[in-house]
Design goal:
Elements (H helix, E strand, L loop, with lengths): L40 H11 L10 H6 L5 H29 L5 H28 L2 H8 L6 H19 L3 H18 L1 H12 L4 H31 L6 H25 L9 H17 L18 H7 L18 H4 L5
Helix pairs in contact: 1-4, 1-9, 3-4, 3-6, 3-8, 4-9, 6-7, 7-9, 7-10, 7-11, 8-9, 8-12, 10-11
The protein binds fe (ii) ion (FE2) (2 copies).
Length: 347
């Protein structure tokens, strides 16, 4: 129970029978076999992730170039801080996912983790594109490395980094489960006061291109959340001995702490200074998300008074549920990247 096997890169003696495949500690051949999958949800996930392909530079930021210098000082400060945090999140995801993948012995799940890693690269690059377009190189660098001057941001990044580093130091199944939970929290909680800030600017007629970039990112993050939720649910079935009362309590504490930090961060960056948002809107929405995430793993709500989506925040899902919105919010075209299906064979 305390051992965790690192998967070999080439293993001719590995199991080819899907019934023997396991999320961790399996005997994988490492062959990418798309015809024999153990987990039925993987094919849907893979198709969705491929359909979500997008290119940051295809989004027009010319309105944002004009809007950025005209933002209210509180809006610009929040824009910079939130973007700085998002760059950190996507960067650490890019670095951490391959590390987790070394211990996942279900090869089809590794395919998903690889696509996710690619998408995290695209997200980091989209922030660079936004910053390169709307501000000077000096401003851009100050925003990227804001954790050097902002103690709150440094504290948050350190907390998240430490959760991930823990698995670098301790290679056991419970620590792996915890780093997976940390991923689930990152994907399902940490982005959201940032996302709501960008969507709020957009509904106030400001920075529409930035909001559009965020919508594409958000659509990907929804699939990442789906992936980690499913990994954890499969582990509940395959490795029930990992889910002791003590470990479940630790996972719950991690989520409670994540919610607490996200609300603090939202209050710090947004507070009551941004037209269209209030401190209560931030805390109501993040508490609601905390419930949604914990109940989606099969547990009881953490905050019984926040089980329904706050009415004041219904506009957020209009922006964020891109997979359900077949028509682009701004440009009236499909949000799913459809070039692969539009390819014309003229040989
Ligand atoms: Fe991301
Ligand atoms: Fe992600």
């Amino acid at each position: 129970m305390n051992k965790l096997k690192k998967k070999p890169l080439f293993n001719p003696e590995g199991d080819t029978d899907v019934r023997l495949r396991r999320m961790i500690n399996g005997n994988t051949t490492n062959l990418n076999d798309f015809n024999n999958m153990r987990y039925p949800w993987v094919s849907d996930w893979y198709r969705q992730a491929m359909n979500n392909f997008w290119i940051p530079e295809e989004i027009n930021l010319s309105a944002d170039v004009k809007d950025y210098p005209r933002l209210l000082p509180a809006e610009r400060t929040a824009y910079d801080k939130i973007l700085s945090f998002l760059v950190f999140l996507d960067s650490i995801q890019t670095a951490n996912l391959p590390h987790i993948g070394e211990y996942v012995t279900a090869n089809e799940v590794n395919l998903c983790l690889s696509i996710q890693t690619f998408q995290e690269c695209v997200h980091s690059q989209s922030y660079s594109y936004m910053l390169d377009t709307i501000c000077s190189p000096t401003q851009r660098n100050a925003i990227l490395y804001q954790w050097k001057d902002d103690e709150h941001l440094l504290r948050r990044n350190t907390f998240i980094g430490n959760c991930y580093n823990e698995f670098q130091e301790h290679k056991d199944p419970v620590t792996l489960l915890k780093v997976m939970m940390a991923n689930f929290i990152l994907e399902g909680i940490y982005f959201y006061s940032g996302f709501m800030f960008f969507y709020n600017l957009s509904r106030n007629g400001k920075m529409p291109g930035s909001a559009q970039e965020i919508r594409y990112i958000n659509r990907d993050e929804n699939t990442h959340l789906w992936l980690f939720r499913n990994i954890i649910l499969e582990l509940q079935k395959e490795e029930p001995q990992l889910f002791t009362l003590e470990t479940i309590t630790e996972l719950k504490e991690m989520l409670l702490e994540g919610v607490r930090q996200e609300i603090d961060w939202g209050h710090y960056c947004i507070g009551n200074n941004i037209p269209g948002l209030t401190r209560d809107m931030v805390s109501d929405y993040i508490h609601y998300l905390g419930n949604l995430r914990w109940t989606s793993l099969g547990y009881e709500p953490l905050y019984p008074e926040h089980t329904a989506e706050p009415e004041s925040m219904a506009w957020v899902s209009q922006y964020s549920n891109a997979n359900m919105v077949k028509t682009d919010f701004f440009e009236a075209k499909s949000t799913a990247y459809a070039k692969s299906t539009a390819l014309v064979d003229d040989l």
